[in-house]
Amino acid sequence: MGWNIGVSRTLPYSAETVWDFLVSREGVAIWLGPGVDLPREPGVEYETANGTVGEIRSFTEGDRVRLTWRPSDWDHDSTVQVRLSGAGAKTTLRFHQEWLAGAEEREEQRAYWQDVTERVVAALAER
What we know:
Elements: E1 3-11, H1 15-22, H2 25-31, E2 45-47, E3 53-60, E4 64-69, E5 78-87, E6 90-100, H3 103-126
Antiparallel strand pairs: 1-6, 2-3, 3-4, 4-5, 5-6
């Protein structure tokens, strides 16, 4: 199990704007799952309303969060990192997921993170 996937998009917003949305309850519901506040301390576990579980590995305010991620129908953990980079009015949002079971799961997760990115873009545009 060593497959990974990365999806990124440059957004026309400051890093602060994107970060504030991503860690808000509305943003977390889009990328992590509904019904949970994002823990900010390493070692803290979470469980979403749809049964995804994991643990925070690192949290760097305004920059990145790294966590384990296991949907209810998976038999293994993966690691997800959400990271921002950029300056001024443009920010690159990156989702990177490691420890996927194989090529099929990688393609499923590529589609998942692309959809998540589209939903984040749409939500930011409505703000």
